């Protein structure tokens, strides 16, 4: 039976497609504020999650221009990610090759709580994984799978100095080292949640340090403390009812769920002191090496698990209005904002009061052995009547907070000082997350707030049953928020972080030095190009340069062969990639950056002549950048030959014995 609260929200939703003020929301000078003149640069990079496309996308702010799509957990035919032999291992998991995932959240690396422009992290929600993307190459460099996890939604969140990336389970499940063949109705007995702490070294390399074994509830979002609260982590939790069916009703039976407070410094001490238990698990750790231009995948088999029952003073619960989504920490680390999706208030908790409550043991019993701090003991105050369906809060540098409201389709600005609502603007429509540049950091950059919306009816030209996803840019420089721009996005933009362009653009890699290329099949010049047979494998050491391949004519390939085109781009100029494709390949092209080597594997399925060509326009003679591969029947004695720029002597009919091996 649907509760009265649910009915009210549903009724409001039916009338919230066009918020009040839609006709006058855009100010007259909006165009000038988002216009970036030809040859000029945007002020911010906006790194946006792709949701169900498993990718990240990069936009300029304030222009809203799309600069790049970064493949992370999904194959990407535009550049061969997940198709080339070098990148396939990046999509390996304990379940095998997993060419898709659901990327919800972005986290940018920080130093002293401030953006430092080194890395972006993303989560795989479906097959639990965390990825690290270099912000100098805009390429995924590392992916680590998370054992003992399901629905890796509550991630990735980072500590103040990027010591750890932290990930929590959305779905509680039986642990990997247990017999999972249990009745679903035994949820309360057999299902557990985890929070994983992934250690980063100075190069960004990730290592699964330890996990916390937690009650079988759902974790939604989290933020690390900063400043005075830097040694703590705060998570929103729902389904404290531990329901396993029809959660929209059964996981909302109680008035309150929890914010979970974790003393991660103490957890780290317990791990070092040997308080954890090493469990047998299975997970993949995939690393891309920029020197060899290749990825390796390693299966690992153990994880250290800490149980709060054996580690006192490590984990606490704080009651929060039911079904919280966002859990956000103010720039000074003092205020922790919870967002109960079904609440009519926004609770703001005090870090100082939480510490006082712990010291005085102001507890209201425990939940599965974990102390529950009294709501009033931790509460700093409540934002009254802010809107319907609060989700996520970020902050500016002026002491203000901005919260997204899904049901009432709006952004609400309120004061951290007195918790009073200051302003509200409509969004179009059903906003999910929002982003203030630097909003989750100790030093927000402010200036804009960006809404990421779930519905765009009547905002864009129709494109069939599904319309584009969207973002909207608002100015927050004055007392009142002002809508400046709508721009479409790829995938479903769940969350994003915006960072000043100056922190990234000067570090951007332009080429890979050919002399530093350590790929095992590199050809560092045309004189090193060759074709070799190893049994039924044919390895083509190929070079590309404007505007030809070496070699560009290959004969002697036979049915049953596996052909590996190892293509090295000899260019040493910025923004001169070369593509490579072969007719009939059942994977994708590869796109090779200057100085890089990438490999396309091709298994011919018929006898004949197969064109090869460059797929990326590189010069006036791009169309001429092509060649041919001859495939003969299995058992043929056509010799293996290759050439570029030289015409071989006339050969006998197909199946003959003559052939000339030539090259430049």
UniProtKB/TrEMBL annotation:
Q: Which InterPro entries match?
A: Copper_CuA, Cupredoxin, N2O_reductase_N, N2OR_C, Nitrous_oxide_Rdtase_Sec-dep, Nos_propeller, NosZ/Cyto_c_oxidase_sub2, WD40/YVTN_repeat-like_dom_sf
Renumbered to this chain, region (Disordered) spans 644-664
Composition bias, Low complexity: 644-655
Listed A to Z, the keywords are: Copper, Metal-binding
Segment forming the signal sequence:
none
* Subcellular location per the Swiss-Prot or TrEMBL entry: Cell envelope
Q: What is its main location?
A: other
Per its UniProt record, what Pfam families does this chain match?
A: nos_propeller
PROSITE patterns reported in the protein's UniProt record:
COX2
Cross-referenced Gene3D superfamilies: Cupredoxins - blue copper proteins, YVTN repeat-like/Quinoprotein amine dehydrogenase
Q: Does the keyword Iron apply?
A: no
**Which PANTHER family does the record cross-reference, listed alphabetically?**
CYTOCHROME C OXIDASE SUBUNIT II, NITROUS-OXIDE REDUCTASE
Q: What is this protein called?
A: Sec-dependent nitrous-oxide reductase
Per the UniProt entry, what species is this protein from, by scientific name? Flaviaesturariibacter amylovorans
Could you tell me the gene encoding this protein?
Answer: nosZ
